[in-house]
Specification:
About 30% of the residues lie in helices and about 25% in strands. The chain is of the alpha/beta class. It folds into two domains: about 130 residues, Lyase, Ornithine Decarboxylase, Chain A, domain 1; about 210 residues, TIM Barrel. Strands 1, 11, 12, 13, 14, 15, 16 and 17 form an eight-stranded mixed sheet that branches. Strands 2-3-4-5-6-8-9-10 form an eight-stranded parallel beta barrel, surrounded by five helices. Strand 16 and strand 17 form a beta hairpin. Helix 3 packs parallel to helix 4. The structure holds pyridoxal-5'-phosphate.
């Protein structure tokens, strides 16, 4: 189905055939690697996408009460819900515990205050291994003075006390990376945990390796599966979880937009679109130039693609096309399945994109469409 067949733009389309390719990799990791895989729904919580992922994973990982509740709604009794957050409000813990099988605590004070309120959920401690390879500190969970997780020296000092408490941790969680294609830091992190907390992996029932890794074509997962094999050989009762988000859904999602104006500036021709960085906030956050399917490096016609908001920096970079763009030309941004809709907003009163599913037959199914009433409900 080509973009021109879409009824209206802007629209985000989730392609089930692409999603299925990633889910096959997940199945291999679970079956051959012995890993338990949770999908981190913060990347994309479109319920129909969650329903398609659910049968292929052990459950979902959530970062708030709402994500945990939606996870439970979609999974019913058919999967685990794990929650990790630096900010549990005491008033929401009781409800959270009804939805979550595992609750991971982020600091020793939070653990000691909130673990008694976690009902029948299993309690985990998020540690911060202070080891990562993330260049941008804004996205580095292990940045100096990070708020995310208990450092290993702090953990070592408190471990015996926590284990003797009425609600000892029965799992360790960490999440240390972002868009990494190299799984080898996981080995070093596990070594650090075993050195700082000798015997801890025998005391707990599970270890959660977090997400932040890409399972792309050509990425060597043998380091991950080898590590899990080694852990399970030494600790046969230890369940090892992996909770990827972006890598499962990103390539399945594309955003189709239309050109609404074209004009010249001193140095470049500008094409204004009916989308904006409102719909892909990471383009602005990371100052990324997104991938546009219709663009071609050898094209004779260059445009600066601009979003339609009042923000001067609402731009998608310069792209070349083999044909001139006209009012109504449709452009497709690829790789927007993760974090785009999750972070999208209505700044300037611009509507959110409609959401479609592309079935393997090519048919497009409309899942969500927003209008003035949705905008109004937020303010009135
Ligand atoms: C605790 C935790 N787990 C999993 C993820 C998923 O990461 P990604 O989408 O990069 O795989 C995140 C992302 O921020 C996270 O904070």
């Amino acid at each position: 189905m080509d973009a021109a067949a879409l009824p209206a733009t802007p629209a985000v389309i989730y392609d089930l055939a692409v999603l299925e390719e990633r889910l096959q990799q997940v199945r291999r990791l679970r079956v051959q690697g012995g890993l338990k895989v949770l999908y981190s729904i913060k990347a994309c919580a479109v319920a129909e996408v969650l329903r398609r992922i659910a049968p292929h994973v052990d459950g979902f990982s959530a970062s708030s009460l709402f994500e945990a509740r939606l996870s439970r709604e979609v999974l019913g009794g058919g999967g685990e819900v794990h929650v990790t957050s630096p900010a549990y409000a005491p008033a929401e813990l009781e409800e959270l515990a009804r939805h979550a099988d595992h609750i991971n605590f982020n600091s020793i004070p939070q653990y000691e205050r909130c673990a008694p309120l976690a009902g029948g959920s299993r309690r985990g401690l998020r540690i911060n291994p202070q080891y990562s390879q993330v260049a941008d500190p804004r996205y580095d969970p292990c940045r100096p003075d990070s708020k995310l997780g208990v450092t290993l020296p702090q953990c070592a000092a408190a471990w015996a006390r926590l284990m003797k408490s009425a609600h000892p941790p029965d799992g360790i969680h960490f999440h240390s990376h972002c868009e990494s294609r190299d799984f080898s830091p996981l080995r070093e992190i596990v070594r650090r945990i075993e050195t700082a907390l000798p015997g801890a992996l025998r005391q707990v029932r599970w270890l959660n390796l977090g997400g932040g890794y890409l399972l792309e074509e050509g990425v060597d997962v043998s380091v991950l599966t080898g590590l899990v094999g080694d852990l399970k050989h030494r600790h046969p009762d230890l369940a090892v979880y992996f909770e990827p988000g972006k890598t499962l859904v990103n390539e399945a999602g594309s955003l189709v937009a239309s050109v609404v104006d074209v004009f010249d500036r001193e140095d470049v021709r500008i094409a204004v679109l009916d989308t904006s960085v409102n719909h892909q906030p990471e383009v602005f956050e990371y100052q990324r130039t997104p991938y546009v399917r219709e663009a071609t490096a050898a094209g004779a016609h260059e445009y600066l693609l601009a979003g339609g908001t009042c923000l001067a920096g609402d731009l998608f970079g310069r792209h070349r096309f083999s044909e001139p763009l006209k009012i109504g030309s449709r452009l497709t941004f690829r790789g927007v399945g993760a974090y785009a809709l999750a972070k999208a907003h209505r700044f300037n009163g611009h509507n959110l994109p409609a959401i479609y599913l592309r079935l393997p037959s090519g048919e497009l199914r409309l899942l969500k469409q927003y209008g003035y009433e949705d905008y109004r409900r937020r303010w009135c």
